[in-house]
Specification:
Elements: H1 3-13, H2 17-24, E1 26-28, H3 34-46, E2 52-58, H4 62-76, E3 81-96, E4 102-114
Parallel strand pairs: 1-2
Antiparallel strand pairs: 2-4, 3-4
Helix pairs in contact: 3-4
Length: 116
Amino acid sequence: MSEDRKEERFESEHKPEHRERLADHVVFIGNKPFMNYVTGVVMQFTTQGADEVVVKARGRFASRAIDVVEVARKRFLEGQIDLAQNGIEIGSEEFQNKEGRNIRVSFIEIKLIRKT
């Protein structure tokens, strides 16, 4: 087994418990129909019992992530969820595309919490 695979396996087996739970409550925004993502967020809070859900998007899907969060908050779970304090993170990631050029893509992460 290669050294990288051993390290990767070790990290996945020894994650802190709260990180595993959070990973289950992440919605990645992409090309699917808009309401699929809204339903995903709502289902995390209602049927999965999540206290915190993170909505993540990159590039052109960032505005769609904002819309998903707002529809979930204002139409489906009004008064039940809110943005976490310091719950919006924005930035950019740099990577190489298929042609080998460096590309920079913006991202957004929006953390929602259940109101107590």
